[in-house]
Each structure stands twice: as structure tokens, then as C-alpha cells.
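Q: Now give one record:
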Amino acid sequence: QVQLVESGGGLMQAGGSVRLSCVASGRTLNIYSMGWFRQAPGKERECVAAISRGGGGTRYADAVKGRFTISRDNANNTLYLQMNSLKSEAPAVYYCAAASGRAWPPRHYDYWGQGTQVTVSS
């Protein structure tokens, strides 16, 4: 079992930047491929970024390519999502998730954090 706790969300301005963090406990992070998901009201949860166990491979949804960067610090059991050039859009809850298998395509994630809300003002 691994527990995941996100932090860093809040109210940001369009064009700004923020870094979300996800701290794992219970198990070492390096045994999992990881992903960041977001969900806006009335919409399906979507994977915006994924990263391999060692951090050498990353994938991004088209909507965030060039603006978001996923990274991990396995020594500190922490996953990050750097979000730049934020767009004014509906508030969304961002979740980190761990997968025992492949993280991309985004299928069969086993563990989820509680989520952190990100709101971008106009």
C-alpha cells in the first residue's frame, strides 16, 4: 500500500505558474510509474502527464504539451507537476496516481491521492 498526498493547488492568475507536489508514504515511490490527472466539473478525469519509474520517460496530453512538466524525486518520494502559462478555464481537481504497470496509455492506476484544486482567474 502506498499513500499519496497532493499539495500546491489554489487560486492562480492566467499566464502564471505553480508547482504541484505529491508525497508518497508507505512504500518507496520508485516502484511505481506515476501520473497526474485532472477533472473539471461535468467532465471525465483525464491524464495530463505520466512518468516512468526512474523518471527518464515522460508523456503529456496534447492540451498541456509545452506548458506542463512532470518530474519526480525518488529519493524524497515526491512527484511534481510544474504548470506554466496557466489558462483561464474551469476549476479542476488535480490528482496524482501510482501504477504498478505502465502509466501510458493511462490505464490501470492502482493508487490515488485525494486531489488538490486548481483555479485560474481571468
Summary: The mean pLDDT is 97. The two ends are 40 Å apart (CA to CA). The longest strand covers residues 18-25. DSSP finds no helices and eleven strands in the chain.
